[in-house]
Amino acid sequence: MARPAQFGKDTGLQVRMLTTIFLLGLVYVVFAGVIFAAGGGAVAIALFAAVLFSVQYFASDKIALRAMGAREVSPAEAPELHAMIERLCIQADIPKPRIAVAQTDMPNAFAMGRSQKHATVCATTGILNLLSPAELEGVLAHEITHIVNRDVAIMTLASFFASIASTIVQFGFFFGGGFSNSDNDDDNPSFMVVLLVSVAVYIVSFLLMQALSRYREFAADRGAAVITGRPSALSSALLKLSSAMERTPAQDLRAAGELNAFFIVPASVKNSVFNLFATHPPMEKRIEALSRLEAQLQSGARPVAA
User: Fold this and answer.
1) What is the count of structural domains for the chain?
2) Residue 270 pLDDT > 90, yes or no?
């Protein structure tokens, strides 16, 4: 039976999370300075950021569940799901998260929450009906590992930074010149500077989030393999999910697109022209990494990061 100590410390994931937060923080110090120099009030900027952060950080799981049409289920409503997650949490030595189910044929699962004590694991009815118990256990162990690694909180924080820039860009297009102190916006370029910097900040935030998102999926796959001791079950689940996602109606995929970075399989399994913009590593690379983990476990070696 796997114990928490077997996880080891994924130095690669820790470094990437710290680097992401540091670079995003640095970008936003510059960003705030540009807005202030363009005429934005410091108090208004701070208040806006604080409100947006509070909503994003403390209510992100509720927003995500509402977007998926999911609801929390009790042990009486989903006894097998609760029992499976409870066993996995004992293995991983973390508090049992809230459990939710989304009524959709799209087969997927995700974890949300700001900490191990404030986390939610959500599975769709599509994935519950599609996978075998062993495969479902692998998927849920993957989501539990996201909570163990605390990368869900980092992704939530990173998405907050991108949300600020996106909101300012949208605000600018609707209410052009909002940061200018001039009566004639055409004579004052400050608004355009803020708008251009906002676009640049959004792009940087997006790319940093994608890079972190891809690596954290490898880390969660590894954690699931350690918890369950069956990497092959997760490999089988990923292949089934990829195939099923290709048959999922396009409108269902678009409706769930906002949560792509949090799903175990993105709501679009088609290869991107530029892998730089993918939220997840290529499926074949995930399967290869799980195959190596299978060999390591069978040989008695301690699993190492991919």
Assistant:
1) 1
2) no
